[in-house]
Amino acid sequence: MKRTLAFGGLVATAGLLAAGLSAPAQAAGDVASDPLASTGIQAKNIAAFWLAENAANLIAATPYNVETKVAAKHLSKGGPSADSKPGIVPAIGDEKKTAAKSKNVNLPKTTGKVFFADGFKNVGTREKPKFVAVNPHWCSATSVQSTYHNLVATAGHCVYDTVSNKATMNYWVFVPGYYQGKTPWGVYVGKTAYTHYDYDVYEDGDRDYAFVTVYNGLKVNGGTADRSAPVNRTEVPKATWDSYVKNFPFLLAGTEGGKYYVWKFVDAGRLGDNVGGQGLAYNQKIGQPVFVFGYPSGSHPDGNHAFSGNTLKWSYGKTFPAQAPAIKAEELQGVKSSFTGEGSLGSAWLLKYNNGRRLGYLNGVTIGVSDTDGNDRYDTSVSPYFDGETYGVYSAAKNNWSGSIA
């Protein structure tokens, strides 16, 4: 176990600060949290960024492939160990139900894609803006159980920016059931991200996971993402429009006949109410079978383009202990899988998945893939081992309200 020394709830980071590194925005014990969109109007601005021009930026996004290929080692003995008693959190709607059997493999509604981008540029005009995302990317993610049905789980580096000096990714949203620009249950903008302190500060691969609270989903009023359609916009005073030009440019819906318009959204409801939420399992024995659900994309090392990333895929196998020293990960779990790394980052590992209810217990998230036998085909996915410290991060996130922003 890796723990930080805390005094009165404040993490001791004097050495880091002296070295010119910054501490996380908020930290208590082993948990770090950082804001993604602090206010409702900021969140609506981000949603408009992705929905504009018939979801052009969503469609243009490519799979995030940073740190996907790892040299994983399959350990014959040893490996991760529980730091306390095994525990589970039941899935949404599954709190009082008994197990049922089904022979079909039904894909979960809870899984989708998270999107983020480096920035934007306006290729239109001030009166008729058209914002194009710079380096838009996506990862896999899933909805999980929480008090307010508003929590998403994914890989830590699909939320926290390990490439630049920024704390978190920009314009972060979750789209469950995403398919070629379609957002069947709306767009859910991230409010606050939670991860382990060791990942936030040290990029510890054994803690490469994150839980993100999201606002209620947003849909455009007319059901299509055409900002020029009258049903999708609302008139505002010129002073408000001028303010949006400076502070919330994505919300602009243009001018016409001396009138000024901004986006009009409708509330799509809470994430967990719409698609459900997986349970959580931690301190579980290695060697149990799991389903892995995600959106793999890209090619194997031999050039075989196995997955498009357009549709949700699954793999199945028993976990085993693994290591990947190159990403500072000594207590991982692995599973045999042909998923390629691009797009599959953040894929949900579900223990005891019930095909009838499409629910199980989240017991891992993909953080990398490996070709362990050297035949130029990826054959293994790896995840942090979910232990009591994972549950601690989850517990810090699960009781935080976000609410409607429409």
UniProtKB/TrEMBL annotation:
Organism: Microbispora cellulosiformans
Signal sequence region: 1-27
Classification via SUPFAM superfamilies: Trypsin-like serine proteases
Signal among keywords: yes
Keywords, comma-separated and alphabetical: Signal
The protein, known as: Serine protease
Mitochondrion found in the keyword field: no
